[in-house]
Each structure stands twice: as structure tokens, then as C-alpha cells.
Amino acid sequence: MDENFKIKALLLVGPTGAGKTPLGRVLEERGFQGARVHHFDFGEELRKIASNQTKVSQEVVDLVKSILAEGRLLTPEEYFIFLETLDEFIGRKGYKEGEFIVLNGFPRDLKQAEFIEGHLDIVCVINLSVTFDVLYYRLKHDPAGDRKGRIDDTPQLVAKKLAWFFERNIPLVDYYKRKGAKVLEVVVDKEDTGETLYQKLLSLLK
């Protein structure tokens, strides 16, 4: 990672099923404010590492395999995996100064945000705002087409995920707001796709 400049980043925030990944893919296709965008889906990158599709160290490969097998989040001692994974990603994508990285899946809380401070300049937080009823519908019906092969969640589990999201992510959004990042709230509806979310985002930027 080039230490001469901070990587400019957009942070996608929202619970599972809100549409972060579909929106991230459209941002990568269309760009942001005239600049090229690279969608860094941390979960997807971890799965690539576990299946030996990247050029990270063997230490990271072994760690990621165990993390995915256990279905757990990274511990603070394992946060370095994010930086090594991002470094490999930007090299693979040919990232250049002035372009944007869209962060999807990391940071998720204040500890993670503090860890990446100094490495990334998060200039904009895109907060996908969704109600319980809308989220439950989206998880059941998959309007954005990014949840194929995933087991439908029960209302109880969805409620737990939403409560967990608010507990961790509201302070995260406030943290970046205090840092001077622009915070854009995109209201998610039942049938929103990556394209419709992108159009809503554009309307907020006008």
C-alpha cells in the first residue's frame, strides 16, 4: 500500500439484506462523481482467500479458513487481515490516486474504524436506512438478486440482526460525521435493486 497518499474511500453501511453489495457493484460499474470506483466486498474477498484465488500470505489464508469455518468475526488481533487483503485487492485492481474504494463489510464498529485510521480517508458514508418490515421482505424475496443459495432468516433472527446493526453502526456513522465525512442516507424500499439505490444516491448528490 502506497504510504504517500491516503486511499479515498466510500463506506457502505446497512444491515444484511439492505442492498450494500448490489449498490457497490453498480458504483464500480458507473463510478462516483466522475471518478473510477473499486468495490471492496470484504466477505467476498475472504472467500476468495480461502479458495486460494488471491496472493496473500499463507498465514492469512490459514487464518481466514479457520474464521470462515467457525463463522465468526475478526478479533482485534486479526484486523491486520483487512489491510493485507486490501493491499492485495488494490494491486490486483490497479488502483490509482484519486480513485475511490467502496468499503463493504469493514469497518463495522468503532474499534475497526480506529484501526484503519491513517490508512484510508473515508470521505463519504452511504447509510442504507431500512425498517424491519422492509428488511424481512428483502431477505425473503431477494429483489436485488444477491442472496441466492442463502437460507431465509426467521423474523426473530432478522430482528436480532437489526438490533445488532443499530448498536454498532449508529456510533460508527456518528464517528465519521464528526471526522467531517459526508453522510448520505438512502432509504431502502422493498423492491430496490442496486440500480434503483444508485439512482437514489445520485439524487442526494444533486
Structure explained in plain terms:
The chain has 206 residues and is of the alpha/beta class. The chain has one domain: 3-Layer(aba) Sandwich (Rossmann fold). Helices cover 49% and strands 16% of the residues. Strands 2-3-1-4-5 form a 5-stranded parallel sheet, with helices on both faces. The model has no long low-confidence stretch (mean pLDDT 90).
Could you provide a short overview of the structure?
The protein has one domain (7-205): 3-Layer(aba) Sandwich (Rossmann fold). Helix content is 49%, strand content 16%. It has 8 helices and 5 strands; from the N terminus they run βαβαααβαβααβα.
Percent helix, as a range, is 40-55%
Number of strands: 5
What is the string of helix and strand elements? EHEHHHEHEHHEH
Return residue spans where pLDDT drops below 50 for at least 5 consecutive residues.
none
